Amino acid sequence: xxxxxxxxxxxxxxxxxxxxxxxxxxxxxxxxxxxxTNTLSxxxxxxxxxxxxxxxxxxxxxxxxxxxxxxxxxxxxxxRLILSVVLLLPLFYICTLHGAFGLPIPFDEKTGGYIxxxxxxxxxxxxxxxxxxxxxxxxxxxxxxxxxxAVGSLSSFGFxxxxxxxxxxxxxxxxxxxxxxxxxxxxxxxxxxxxxxxxALRKLISVIPSRAVIVGEDGTKTEIPxxxxxxxxxxxxxxxxxxxxxxxxxDGVSAVDESSVTGESLPKVREPGDRVTASSVCxxxxxxxxxxxxxxxxxxxxxxxxxxxxxxxxxxxGRLADRIASWFVPAVMLLAxxxxxxxxxxxxxxxxxxxxxxxxxxxxxxxxxxxxxxVAVTVGCGKGAENGILFRNASVLELTGKVGTVICDKTxxxxxxxxxxxxxxxxxxxSAPIMYSLEKLxxxxxxxxxxxxxxxKGSERFEVSDFNVAPGVGVSxxxxxxxxxxxxxxxxxxxxxxxxxxxxxxxxxxxxxxxAVLFRDDEPIYAVSFTDGIKPDSKEAVSLLKRMGEKVxxxxxxxxxxxxxxxxxxxxxxxxxxxxxxxxxxxxEVRKLKDEAVTAMVGDGINxxxxxxxxxxxxxxxxxxxIAGNASDIILSRSSLRDFAGAVxxxxxxxxIIKENLLWALIYNLIGIPIAAGAFSGxxxxxxxxxxxxxxxxxxxxxxxxxxRIRRFDIYKPIRQKEKHVKGDKNMEVTxxxxxxxxxxxxxxxxxxxxxxxxxxxxEVSHEKGTAVVTLKKAVAVEKLNRIVTDAGYEVI
Length: 797
What we know:
- The chain contains 26 helices and 32 strands.
- The chain is an alpha+beta fold.
- The strands form 7 sheets. Strands 14-26-25-24-15-22-23 form a 7-stranded mixed beta sheet, with helices on both faces.
- Helix 22 links the parallel strand 24 and strand 25.
- The longest helix is centred in the last third of the chain and has 36 residues.
């Protein structure tokens, strides 16, 4: 994914134009521009060609690394506003206070007219950037919000010049100057509010350390830019300083604040052998860190990259605004022309016709439409990052709120994921070293737990040959010429147990403990039991999810007794426990539950990768150093199920804000444009061009301010979804409106994809009508049908 900084975008039409320009480049498969962050993200294509295409469309573009300071232009807008107001005040006195109220002026009317011309021209010159952008967009046949302002202001100015030279005293210089001035007031308010929406991302960028102190081989200490630290070098971090790299503590002890990456507010003690992440703050003491990941490869860089890309991506609900924006500005310009012509026919009054035409131009607000979705997405992603919740993109942010079923893995999700040996039993008293020798070669969590136990006891270790791993079953190998295998409790019971080891294993099942049994050939000779504590917030998290209306399931490869024991401790219903599932079978279980509702799988994201990929939303428990390699939809950096509940709530409030913003932008334009056009002038309800400009600016400010409400929202306060994103009924016909089908081949592709779904009886597809009429033979989630069409390469509208 390539990221570019784009200059000159002012509204949703600009966004659409920039995206089209990027997509026109050979090799570019996707493009997404953000009005909020002034960025363009493109997949594929050459950077130079993309920049050239964007420039040809009338904008400036440059390659971005995603970590430069976010520019909002507040300073330059403030300067323009101050200069505009200074020039506008005497103009306002001449036009309004003298013209309407008769206050004296020290010159005649004609001289006053020329002074108005000079003052209004000066205001236009101060705002030449807006005018130039608008005019250039017109020449590129891609009018934007600045085009509306430029045409409105310049037409008022030009007509006033004509009237002045004709000897008329009724002039419009005041409107020509007030339009850009009021636009600047709105832009300043909007820019200030927009700055607040990117505070979370700005804060993340600011905590990336810029300097580091490295220790040379001779013990000398040298301060260098953090980006120049190389893997394998040691850095010194003193109290109050930020760790500049990801690495391992080799010397010293300190309480380290890792909130910038994990969102966890309490510092954690780090000592030799512990890992630390870049941007963590050493609150006391002094530590030496061996660098493992540096520069752009650090965890905090991954977090910044994720949040930046998610903020710049588009939510599916935003596509509606994009479609409207593509024709909005040209339609407004045509409507303004029609308004002017209609008033000329009805009244013959050029002044009245011009005033109404200009009012229509400047009252319309494509900017509010363009900001409605991205501001909410950016604030939502930032709010998530502050709480250790990282969304992969805006589509995930939207879909998460529709989740109706949450499937939890057991180990590491509901439990600590740090099993400990509880007890052991041996037939000959000599088998423990052999068990240790086998498990030392395994990466399974239970194997690691046993090795830690054996090493603490000082167990002997033997050489193992012909070592083999059977996923979900166990390990085997040859020691001293004899074949041994360490297997799971289930496989051990299938192989047959007897005597004390059988009683030991039965007791493990009753207690819900995990166990491993060592066999010599086919004879069980040793068994060990493990226990794994419940996470402190797991019960609270399950309760929270239930209050939010979620169905919570436990999906585990452990035995039924162990799984049901954990389920009872955290509050999951026994009938919602699916146990004894091998890694490959978890995806099948998720697939069954997907037929009933939008489904989320919460686990480690690595061992459960197939299940995560199968679920509608995959959420992974991942520490700071695991973020980069994790491909899940959501990353929970504090490894807490409670944070997934927070992610669902955050998604729901963000989606609610987006809908409110889109509704406001729609209602504003539906009411404002008719009033500006003079449709209610008979009732005495009119709007002058200058005040139309002010209302247009304020409408954008309202959209941004509304999105900022997300920052004050408690994401752990349960919100139930009002809409049911669940099923169609058996024998029901579902009509899907589809965009992008062009020929019978497209029809066949969609038809084949839909009819592969087990719940679909048949699908009748028409590219001419743009529909697919689906007959169901079994209940199915409507979201699933939509996803099938999307995966086939078409858009559901």
